[in-house]
Fold this protein.
Amino acid sequence: MEIYLYIALFAPLVGSLFAGLFGASPKTVITGIVTSGLLFTSFISSAILLSFVMSGHTVHVEMMTWMAAGDLYIPFGFVVDQVSVTMMMVVSIVSTVVHIYSIGYMDHDKGFNRFFSYLSAFVFSMMVLVMSDNFLGLFIGWEGVGLCSWLLIGFWYHKESATWAANEAFIMNRIADLAMLIGIFMMYWSLGSLQYDVVFANIGNIPVEVVTWIGIFLFIGAMGKSAQFPLHTWLADAMEGPTPVSALIHAATMVTAGVYLVVRANPIYDLIPEVGLFIASLGAFVAMFAATMALVNRDMKRIIAYSTLSQLGYMFVAAGLGAYWVALFHLMAHAFFKALLFLGAGNVMHAMHDELDPFKMGGLKKSMKWTWILMTLASVALAGIYPLAGFFSKDLILEVAFVEQHYILYTVLLLTAGLTAFYSFRLVALIFHGNERHLEHGIHPHEAYNFVLFAMAPLGILAVIAGMAFKTPYYEMVTQLLPAIEYHIHNHTVFWIMTIGTQLFVILAIAYAYKKYAKAVKVDEKVESGFFYQLLYNQYFIPKIYDEVFSKPYLKLSKLAWKEIDLKIVDATVDGIANVIYRTGEKTHTMQDGNLSSMLRWMVIGLVVLLVLAVAFTAGYNVVNLRAM
Amino acid sequence: MFEAVAFYLFATLTIIMFTITVMTSQALYALTAMAAGMIFISAFFFILGADFLGAIQIIVYTGAVMALYAFGMMFFDTTRTLVEKRSNPRLVVVLGGLAAVLVVLIVLAPIVTTNINAHYPIDPSVGNSQAIGMVLFTKYLVPFELAAVMLLVAMIAGIVLAGKKMDKSLTLMADEEIALMHASSTQNTEEGAH
Amino acid sequence: MELTLNHYLVLSTILFAIGLIGVMRRKNLLMLFFATEILLNAVNIGFAAISHYRGDYTGQMFAFFIIAIAASEVAVGLGLLIVWYKRTGKIDLDQMTSMRG
């Protein structure tokens, strides 16, 4: 089984290096095919490992020693257990699909080979992240995906907004990673190991305050990667990257790494329910907060990005309340339909010549039938309509909140579910129904390549069946590692009322969205100039606040440091040293009068000085030595 | 006792001779005093049992070096009273004295002279010359050969420098003429190369 | 009264200082050469004395090579002096100012 582990792990790396060889040369389709093929290999290996793990085994290998210094011993160890194999499956399926999709999507791009190199490198980092058997290996993968995310957001580096967004994402993550590193240090400090099994076996023996701090710091790291409030602004801006990147990194895999971390560290969070409650509350807040921003946005990709943010909030609610398997389940289901949604959006973007405003589209269902079907499916799944994937995972989270008697959280999540349905179908209605507004702009849309649609089909199927078909086997498998808590509402009447009520609420929201946007779009000036609309449209003014509170004072500080400290102190010191030497030369160049006799005298003076130094040092050395004796 | 007397006698004589060499304004006196000082120095070598070195000292310095200087003096016509510009003579003495005092301080310090092991111990059973020969032609063979080559090079250099263009008096030529001469000689060699 | 190594070393130092004074004092290049010979000889005495008192031939070897070097120096130095004298007719140090910085 170890061989499959290594294949699953290293196939993407091989692909990345292969594509990297051609990084500077013009487009060669072979790079796309080879990387996709290697990822498919990785997927097959993961599937074999999955069947192995399903039978109740785990694979744990120690590839080689990484760090060994004194008591510190950290190997390159990898583990395939019930949690990591789930993540491996998600990552390998979505990335294979995205790779094949990208062959079509990036068809006309100059950086075709480079793109595949980065994308495969990302998959490798993600695999390291999920398969590592210790926190430091996880951190390396964590940083690796951050780096690849930076490379891919800024892939079109000639666009200033793209480089800006890439830097924003990287810097925000860096802030969070610092906290995570502190958490890892504290863990090592108090437990002397970073191996998962050692840490989780001994975490109960250390003071609960320390565990609390470790939990908090690790969660701050997760907040950065999963774009939770207040570090959420980078995710929407990250949509500057190519759409496949948004699908793979900023929806399906990387941003869920934070959830994975919390799930993986479940023995830690089990000990500190207060922190868990905080995580859940923050998750619910973000779910609502992001959904409201998605209501009014006029950028197709940003709407989906906010939706991702909102769903991540759901996952954190589940993880925070101790329902780790539910969080992981929603993570998996969400990966499928959100990636599908993004890829569909990519098709639309291509057809619309990179137009992102859905208000300038409409009626696309005629020309882009399959994209329409797939995106509608994804939206239905996202909204959580029975029997699609979202229903099983998302409604489960609502049940968790209800069973755990956190009724406020439950209410917030229920409202958010309605908002989710509304904004998803607002988008679908605006793009695919109504008048063909794009004709005014002289755009004639066309459907994407067939193989692209084929590549998307597996995601479509998974979005439909993932919930229904996988829930029971998944539950049986993953609860061998995670706490097995069944969330059932015992009162049948309450259960049915809740389920049907939720479904009705969601369907009403969908219907309202269709009614409002499917026919003709009327821009309601009064609403748009209203306070709430402006508040939401400007993302609660948070980017502006960050700009005012952090960026501008920092710029001022930097300017101060430059003009006052650097120029007046550092540069002045350096110039001063140079001046002293220069002036000394000016004053003493008369010494070099060309008279050999006086040069000889100077030589003797130098000799005398050296002798004096020799005597002084010898004497001083003896004095010190005598004292020491 | 005899050694001590001899040491102090020759030390006094050497110092006097060298002082004359340095201080006199008569070049001939300087040369003579220098030669005498060299011979007196060889006396120290004999006292110290370095017979071969003493002999070499007399032969090389007094025989060869001094003869060279004598010829040089004749060439430069410096047998008259030397006219030298003296500047700041006190500084010269102070610096020299200071250097001497410091070196004495260092050599008198006890730490320097301990812990020295003989690499090539003196063997009393053989004579000094023989022993020198044995060391010189075994351990110091390469430096010895190098010194030989160096002396050869120096000899050739001396002949070339002093004897070059003996037929032409560079003193009586203007700088332009010398430059012209050099130019033509290089041209000749270039033509030869063709 | 027993002679020690230090006697010789002090003598060597005094002679070296005399040579040093000569080097600084003399302006006539030929006389300058004399002073350098004094320096070399002063060092030779030191080497010979150390060789004797340490019972080691190394010192004598060094003195030997120094004599060889002194001889070469005189040959080359006098050759250069002759060329210089032919060019300028003087061997006064104060007139050699081509190395002015």
Q: What stands out?
A: The mean pLDDT of chain C is 86. The helical segments of chain C are 5-25, 29-54, 58-88.
